[in-house]
Amino acid sequence: xxxxxxxxxxxxxxxxxxxxxxxxxxxxxxxSEEMYDIFGKYGAIRQIRIGTSKETRGTAFVVYExxxxxxxxxxxxxxxxxxxxxxxxLYYQQAKMSKKFDQKKKEEEITKMQEKYGVSTxxx
Length: 124
Hints:
Radius of gyration: 19 Å
CATH topology of the domain at 20-93: Alpha-Beta Plaits
Number of strands: 6
Number of helices: 4
Order of helices and strands: HEHEEHEEEH
Helix content: 40-55%
Strand content: 15-25%
Strand order of the largest sheet: 2-3-1-6
């Protein structure tokens, strides 16, 4: 209902708003059904991807059909308590995510080069 009023008012959305949400601080044992129950209240969901690896546990991506539904979900679910954990709901931003990945990859390359050539970063 709130999304209908947003559309009628022809509200301009900030540039970071998109249909894909990045959710952090999820309980590790949360199921897909529970995610659909929580996020489905705010609109039609196209896809939910829950992190399963060691690095991605406790995170998920939620893709809504409509951008206004995604905005409503962010507004209502940021700080929402699930199993004594407060959710962090953000708009997915490709540039920021790839920078984190690139940084990690570069650090690994530097470590490999230091080991290969016997270089230490410790002061002697």
